[in-house]
Amino acid sequence: MSEGLLVANNLSKFYQMGEVTVKALKEASFRLEEGELVVVLGPSGSGKSTLLNIIGGMDRPTGGELFYRGKSLHRAGAKELTVYRRHHIGFVFQFYNLMPNLTALENIQLSVQIASDPLSPTELLAKVGLADRADHFPSQLSGGEQQRVALARALAKNPRILLCDEPTGALDYGTSIQVLQLLKETCETYGKTVVIITHNTAIAQMAHRIFYLKDGILERIEENQTPLPPEKVTW
Q1: What proportion of the chain, given as a percentage, has pLDDT over 90?
Q2: Which residues of 179-214 are buried (b: 16+ CB within 10 A; e: fewer)?
Q3: Full-prediction pTM beyond 0.85?
Q4: Domain 6-232 is found in CATH 1.10.3720.10
Q5: Which pLDDT band, with edges at 50, 70 and 90, does 120 fall under?
Q6: Could you give the CA distance from residue 93 to residue 168 in angstroms, rounded to a whole number?
């Protein structure tokens, strides 16, 4: 396998539930490159979240190897994984996970307190089109606005990899397009690697590569030679 930002060789994750062994991920091999957008498709229970958790350093694989910039993650201890998550990984969740008692700007500022090379929270808030909502609390923002704040918060740490768990799952069509456009710009403007896990096959049209998961097996990886802009995606 060629060198990449992140490289996985025969990655597996098994869970023991009583006498039953659940094979959530089975010998997946892949790479993530700098500045690409990857969409991971699969039904519920296919292993998408398990894969995302391992890439993000929130869980360790049962077997196989995982390397970030040549450094082993599969052998990393809890402290090393904490440092990896803090400095190299950004997370965007389906239901935003904003702090309700903090304003939009304060939610982003909270993120940069643990970063070694953060981006400007004020500039990021303007980038996602919410400069005039800086002093608003999450309850005063629409779902789409909250998701844009969550994206700005994840970017504020200046991570190399941005992991998105169903980022448009709770949004309407128009707002979904806006959020997907921001994710695409994240690749192009900031050079980040963006990984989106989703049930929505339409989103794959804008990806550089598509990973197909089923029953814990990475069945295939498809290259997309002509990624579409979000507004051109056929829903």
Answers
A1: 76
A2: bbebbbebbeebebbbbbbbebebbbbbbbbbbbbe
A3: yes
A4: no
A5: very high
A6: 9
